[in-house]
Design brief:
Elements lengths: L2 H11 L7 E13 L6 H15 L4 E3 L6 E2 L8 H7 L3 E4 L4 E12 L3 H5 L2 H9 L2 E5 L7 E8 L8 H14 L5 H9 L13 E10 L6 E11 L3 H13 L7 E4 L2 H4 L2 H17 E7 L9 E4 L2 E4 H7 L6 E4 L3 H4 L2 E6 L3 H19 L13 E2 L6 H13 L6 H7 L20 H5 L15 H10 L1
Antiparallel strand pairs: 1-5, 1-6, 2-3, 2-5, 4-5, 7-9, 7-10, 8-9, 11-15, 11-16, 12-13, 14-15
Helix pairs in contact: 2-5, 6-8, 7-8
Length: 454
């Protein structure tokens, strides 16, 4: 189908209507220490004005009714404002105040495009405001902990979340926090656990003060505050029973449960792991082939389970954006196990693939998965090498002057010559250092006089 035909079909389907999206936004106004008065209504209106600069269709909708507000004059105030926008105030032990305001907006453009536009982002940064899409029904947000020993840039968050959910759902745990949560939410099924909504994202954890501060970029788990103790207990039990094999779970408050040194050591171990991780790319592995069953040593399992859980030299196999197109996957391993992983994909996997994987589950054009070679234009690369040999860079001032006829850029002059004493007596002296000259402290008047002399 040509581009013109695609445009024609899109024009036939175009009805001239715009798709509007409703989003509940949580605004966190970081007021500061010991502030007596904060104008929440004016602060919210200023944020909405910036949103309207990017998306002119933006207006505010009531959370409790169908009422909408499209201008400042009809905007609620007083007690109605506090009720409609579900204001909540939090004060830390040090007196730092954060005001939470929840607003439901209707918009046409995507929220991320609105939020990260220049006028909105600059206003949020300048006024210390954080804006998020609220997924917890205006409840307080907490974190049961984080997951370490997973590379933050090579992880597939949806797959990791699915593995965590399966482990939490199947773990057996009779702790008080679990029983209380199930009783509150009327969960009577004892065979599985209910999994409350949670989010996973990459965040940097810091411990200590400079210059001895330790920083580690880990996978943070976030959920509603009322679900934190329940989810934290189930996660700890699931990792202890090895129902979740991805990474290491570091529960919130670990430094209080064990010691600050132990928590810092765990962050350092994570950084060492991240430095040791390497990724190998393979192509030709169809996604359906991962769910084909293979039989090894009398045991039947899927190819996905075999690669992710039965190969000690493979950390994980992650999907990419090209998995559907050409079967491209990333094999996560370490520098120490890289040679074994390469040998496995070059020799062992092709044999297993040919014997157990059906033809319908194979990628067209590939008899078996192969390691992806380094990409690049070999013709241009070889030409660049020849060009470098035929035209080496100038090594002297005279050559640079000759190049000046073809290149009008300024000539880099050679460094000034430094006279070096090469007598035998000099080389016999070890750790020779010139004695520093005594610096004379000048008075402010002398410094001012020298400035005028210049």
């Amino acid at each position: 189908m040509t581009v013109q035909e695609q445009i024609r079909i899109a024009g036939e389907k175009d009805t001239g209507t715009k798709t509007l999206t409703t989003s509940t936004i949580r605004l966190e106004f970081n007021i500061g220490l010991y502030v007596d008065k904060f104008k929440a209504r004016d602060s919210l209106l200023r944020v909405l004005h910036k949103l309207a600069l990017v998306d002119t269709t933006v207006y505010v909708k009531s959370y409790f009714s169908e009422e909408v507000w499209k201008d400042d004059r009809s905007f609620p105030s007083g007690e109605k404002f506090a009720t409609e926008f579900r204001m909540r105030k939090e004060v830390s032990n040090s007196g730092y105040i954060i005001m939470y305001v929840y607003t439901t907006i209707v918009h046409h453009r995507e929220w991320k495009d609105i939020k990260f536009s220049e006028p909105v982002l600059n206003h949020l940064k300048k006024n210390h405001v954080f804006a998020y899409v609220d997924e917890y029904e205006a409840k307080k947000v907490g974190s049961p902990g984080c997951i370490s020993k997973i590379h933050p840039k090579l992880v597939n968050i949806p797959n990791l979340k699915e593995a965590v959910m399966n482990g939490v759902r199947m773990v057996k745990c009779d702790e008080k926090e679990v029983e209380n949560w199930k009783g509150k939410h009327n969960h009577m099924d004892e065979s599985t656990n209910a999994v409350p909504f949670f989010a996973m994202f990459v965040q940097t954890k810091r411990w200590g003060q400079p210059p001895k501060r330790t920083e580690a970029t880990v996978i943070v788990i976030q959920c509603a505050a009322e679900d934190t103790a329940y989810l934290k207990t189930l996660l700890a039990a699931a990792y202890e029973q090895k129902l979740i094999k991805e990474g290491v779970f570091l529960p919130q408050g670990l430094w209080k449960m064990v010691s600050p040194e132990f928590y810092k050591h765990q962050l350092q171990l994570h950084n060492e792991y991240v430095k040791s991780v390497v990724a190998l790319a393979i192509i030709g592995l169809h996604k359906d082939a991962m769910w084909e069953y293979i039989k090894l040593n009398g045991e039947e399992m899927t190819l996905e389970h075999y690669l992710n859980h039965r190969q000690p030299h493979i950390e994980s196999v992650q999907e990419t954006k090209q998995t559907k197109e050409n079967g491209r996957w990333l094999v996560i391993t370490t520098k120490e196990n890289m040679a074994k992983a390469i040998k496995f994909f070059d020799y062992t996997l092709p044999v297993i693939y040919q014997e157990y994987i059906n033809t319908e589950s194979r990628m067209m054009g590939y008899e078996h998965p192969v390691r992806a070679r380094a990409s690049g234009n070999k013709t241009v690369g070889s030409y660049a090498s020849v060009l470098q040999q035929n035209h080496p860079p100038p090594t002297s001032y005279l050559q640079a002057a000759a190049y000046q006829q073809h290149d009008q850029s300024p000539i880099t002059r050679p460094n000034k010559r430094i006279m070096v004493d090469t007598s035998p007596e000099t080389y016999e002296k070890k750790n020779y250092e010139e004695e520093p000259k005594e610096s004379v402290q000048k008075t402010p008047q002398q410094q001012q006089d020298n400035l005028y002399q210049l």
